Fold:
Amino acid sequence: MKLLTRYIVREHVGPLVFALSALTSLLMLQYVARQLANLAGKGLPWAAIGEFFVLSLPFTIAMTMPMAVLVATLYAFGRMAAEHEITAFKASGVRVRTLMAPVLACAFALSIGMIWFNDQVLPAANHRLRILQQDIARTKPTVALREQSMNMITEMFFMRVARVNAETNRIYDVVIYDLSKGIERKTVYADSGVISLDPNGRDMVIQLYDGFAQEFVRGESHRLQRSFFETQTVRQKGIAQGFENSSGSDAFKGDREMTVCEMHRRYRSDAVDVERIRQEYVSNTDRLRKVSGRRITPPRPRPRAEPLAALYCEQFLGRIAGLFLPKKAEAQALGQDSIVQDSIRQDSVRQDTVRRDSTRRDSVVVPVAVPATPVPGSPVPGQPVPGQPVPGVPVPGSPDSAQVAGQFPPPINGIPVLPRGSYTPAPGLTYSQDSALRAAGVDPMTQAVQAQPTDTSEAAVALGAVNATGLQLIAARESLDSLAVEIHKKFALSLACFVFVLFGPPIALRFPRGGVGVTIGVSIVVFGLYYICLMGGEALADKGQLPAYVAMWIANVVFALAGVALLWRVESTTDNSRGGGFAEWRADRKARKALARAAKAKAKGRDTAEPAVSA
Structure:
C-alpha cells in the first residue's frame, strides 16, 4: 500500500506544479497590464520593479493554489481512468476512496500550510506592497518636452517649444504660460533657452535668451505690462523627484494587511462600540415608538468575539506558544490576554451604566398633587362655581338646552346620536366623522385610528435621534462585518484545496477519456461558480444581510456535499469505467432509461398474465 500511496501522490506533483505556474503567470500578466500605467515613465530602478512583482505574488498564489489543486486532481485521475489503471485497481479490490485517501491527506496538509501562508505571509506582503505603491506614486519623472505642442509642466505652468536639441538640452522659439499668480498671469516669449536641473536634482532651471515678458498689472486688469530681456532665469520647484524607498513601516494596516490575531483583537474592541451604539439605537427606537407608535426593528446583535479566530489564536496558537516560548514570554502573553479581558469587562460595565442612564432619561417623573387647605370664600377645585357655566352642560335657553331636555334624536342601532359640542369624538376622528358614523349606526370607537402625537416636535426629535444613531451603527457594523469576512475568508480559501480534491476525482472518473478539454472546461466552470459564491457572499456579508461564516463557507459546503454525492455514485456503480465524453454519457443515459422502461413493461405484462392463468 505504501507503493500505491507514493504512486498516487507522484502522479499529482507534476500537474500541480505546472498548473500553479501557468495560472499564476496568467494572473500576474493581467495584474501587470493593469499596473503598467503606474510604473511606466517613472524612472524606477530595477530593484523597485522587481520588489513590486515579488510582493504581488503572494496574493496571486493564494487565489491560484485551489485552482491548481483541482486541475491536478482532474488531470491525474482522468489519465489513470483513460489508461484503465482505475479498472485494474477495482479488479484488484481497491476502491476509489482508497485511491483518494493519500491525496486527501496531502490536500489537508496543504490546506494547513495555506492557512499559515494566508495568515502570515500574505498580510505582510500586502502591507509592504501598499507602502511601495505610495512611494511609487510620489515619484515624478523628468520633463520630456514635445515639439510643436503644449507641454504641461505643472497645473499652473505650461510651455510650448518649436524645436528641441536633445544632446545640448537647448530649446528654440519658447513660449511660457505662467498662471500661478491668478489674474496676474504672465506670458514669456524667448528666442531660445537651455533646460537643466538644479544641483538638488528636483528643481528645473530654464535659462532664456532674447525675449520679452508681458503680464497684467496688479489691480488694473485692463493694463498689460511688457518687459524685454537678453537673459532671464525661470525656476520651477519640485519638477523631478527620484524614487525613495521608505525604510520605515506604516503603523496603519487595512483588513487585508493584518493577521488573524490582529483582526481578532480589533474585532473584540470594535464589537464593544458596535453593541454600545446598538443599545443606544434600541433606546431611541423605543422612545420613537412611545411617542409616535412607529415600530422599527433593530439589527441583530454581533458576537463579542469571532469564535473561529478565538479558537485559532487563543487555543491553537496559544498552546503552540506555550510549547516553544519560555515561561517568561508565556506569562507576558497571558498578562496581555488578561489586560484585554479586563478592558472588555470594563467596557461592558460602562455599557450597562450607559443603558441604565438612558433608562433613567426615558423615565417620566409624574408630580404628586398635594391637597391644599381651602381658603374660605375661594372656589374649590372640581366644584362648580355659582353663576358660572359648567363645561359640557348646556346653558338654559341655549339651542342645546332643548336637546338636553329630551329633544335628542332617537338612537340608531343602540348608538346615541349626540349634537356637536356635547361630547368628545373618538380618538383619531373629527366631529364630522364621528357624527356621520353615529348617524349611520356605526360605533365610532370601532373605526377609531391610532391617535397621532400631539407634540410633533418630540416625534421629530426622536426620529432624528434614530436616524443619527442608525448611520453610526451602519458605519460601525460594516467595519466589524468586514473584519469577520476577512477572518473567515482566510480559512475558507485555504480549505478549498481539500474540498476540490474531494470534488475532482468523481468528475474525472465520470469522463475518463475527455482529456485536457474536460479538465480545462470543468475547471473553468467550477472556478467561476466557486468565486461567484465567494464574492457574492462577501458582498452580502459586508451589507449585513448574511452572517460572515455563512457567506464565506457556503461555497465550500456546497462543493463538498456535491463531491461526497458524486463519490458515492461512482462507488455504487458496477462498471469499471464510464464514457469518454458528454455525447457518450447522454447515449449511455438513454440506453439505461430504455432498459428500465423495458423491464417495467415486462413486469407489468407478467402481472396481467397471472390473473388469466389462475382463472
